[in-house]
């Protein structure tokens, strides 16, 4: 089988499981989890932030491990960690247990991304790498989209859902062990730190702000649907279907950057993400605006992560795992801070003020790229 196809398909599946199931499905089932474990918005935000914190720690470790032991073992480990965390969520008897399990599950996403970037750089032809990376990254959307109808079918039985997700994660670990390259074919740079030039600092700021803004729907989309529309927990699956289905467009992020340049693409997607957040959370939201807003958010978010992936890999072409790590780490740092802050604002000021504030944060991320002349192809 063609290396680009086999690695792309395996990476797509691992990202779908780790991001769509282990990390972002928590927001989908949050209303039902909240009802059973009596969390409240502030504690929900803190627990959601724990998922992103686990990601931050894991992605740094993953980049270093990938450069030392190769992508196969790290990718297999990511799938198994996802399974462990989701088993913990499925069996959680209280908030403390849940917080620990969410942190473990969230860390799997940090482990998953760097080995996939390294596998692509190692075994895929140069002219196919941007497209393959973008396709793998779009796996997030399929995981999110699939979790929506699953929630509808099992009427909010979140423990059963996470148990099933854990089984899929184990299966993906077996597939990764068979298909991914075990070692690098290029010399490794194990001790040299990357040079943080102006381009890298712009990436850090932009990804940080975008990540913080994105917690509006990733962590509180279900809660906003409950507040604005009186949705039951199972109804939130409709929003997740919209977010995930539209996010499949993330596979085309490489094409957009090549055609329009990184700066224009970046601004457009940040604007669409902000509009999507407002359509879901603002006063007067309807089921139609919520569905459209979720689609705008999902498509824009996954395309933006593809943009940051391409930005980071091109900024450090000799160290693709580290280049990806920097952008994705900053998204997660923003999410770690953003989730509890949004929860506090939602408690104190209500959804309109919280959503509007975070939509502005999303737009501010565009300023970090303004003035950068070179567009990434």
Concise account of the structure shown:
It contains 16 helices and no strands.
Distance between the termini: 27 Å
Count of DSSP H/I helices: 16
User: Segments where pLDDT lies below 50 for 5+ residues?
Assistant: 373-377
Structural class: mainly alpha
Can you give the mean pLDDT? Answer: 84
User: How many strand elements?
Assistant: 0
The gross shape turns out to be globular
Radius of gyration: 19 Å
Beta-strand proportion: under 5%
Order of helices and strands: HHHHHHHHHHHHHHHH
Helix content: over 70%
- Major pleated sheet: none
Summary keywords:
single chain, 16 helices, disordered C terminus, about 80% helix, mainly alpha, globular
Task: Describe the fold and architecture.
The chain has 377 residues and is mainly alpha-helical. The chain contains 16 helices and no strands. It has helices spanning 3-23, 25-37, 41-69, 71-90, 95-123, 126-137, 139-153, 158-179, 198-218, 221-229, 236-247, 253-260, 262-281, 287-315, 320-349, 351-364. Helix 3 runs parallel beside helix 5 (95-123) and helix 9 (198-218) packs antiparallel against helix 16 (351-364). The chain is globular and about 50 Å long. The two termini are 27 Å apart.
């Amino acid at each position: 089988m063609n290396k680009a196809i086999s690695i792309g398909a395996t990476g797509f599946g691992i990202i779908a499981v780790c991001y769509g199931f282990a990390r972002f499905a928590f927001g989908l089932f949050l209303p039902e989890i909240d009802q059973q474990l009596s969390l409240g918005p502030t504690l929900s935000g803190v627990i959601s932030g724990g998922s992103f914190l686990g990601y931050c720690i894991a992605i740094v470790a993953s980049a270093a491990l990938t450069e030392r032991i190769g992508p196969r073992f790290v990718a297999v480990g990511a799938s198994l960690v996802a399974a462990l965390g989701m088993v913990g969520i499925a069996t959680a008897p209280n908030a403390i247990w849940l917080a620990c399990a969410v942190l473990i599950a969230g860390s799997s996403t940090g482990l998953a991304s760097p080995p996939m970037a390294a596998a692509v750089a190692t075994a895929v032809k140069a002219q196919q790498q941007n497209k393959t990376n973008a396709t793998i990254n779009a796996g997030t959307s399929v995981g999110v989209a699939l979790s929506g109808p699953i929630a509808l079918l099992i009427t909010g039985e979140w423990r059963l859902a996470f148990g099933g997700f854990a089984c899929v994660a184990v299966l993906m670990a077996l597939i990764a062990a068979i298909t991914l390259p075990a070692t690098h074919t290029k010399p490794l740079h194990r001790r040299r730190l990357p040079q943080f030039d102006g381009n890298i600092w712009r990436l850090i700021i932009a990804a940080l702000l975008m990540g913080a803004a994105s917690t509006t729907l990733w962590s509180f989309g279900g809660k906003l649907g409950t507040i604005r529309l009186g949705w039951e927990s199972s109804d939130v699956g409709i929003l997740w279907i919209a977010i995930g289905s539209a996010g499949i467009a993330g596979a085309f992020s490489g094409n957009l950057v090549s055609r329009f340049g990184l700066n224009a693409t970046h601004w457009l997607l940040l604007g669409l993400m902000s509009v999507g957040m407002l359509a879901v959370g603002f006063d007067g939201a309807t089921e139609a605006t919520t569905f459209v807003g979720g689609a705008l958010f999902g498509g824009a978010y996954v395309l933006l992560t593809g943009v940051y992936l391409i930005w980071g890999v091109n900024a450090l072409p000799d160290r693709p795992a580290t280049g990806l790590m920097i952008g994705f780490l900053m998204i997660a740092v923003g999410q770690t801070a953003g989730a509890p802050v949004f929860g506090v604002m939602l408690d104190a000021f209500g959804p309109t003020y919280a959503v509007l504030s975070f939509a502005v944060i999303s737009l501010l991320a565009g300023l970090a790229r303004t003035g950068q002349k070179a567009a990434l192809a």
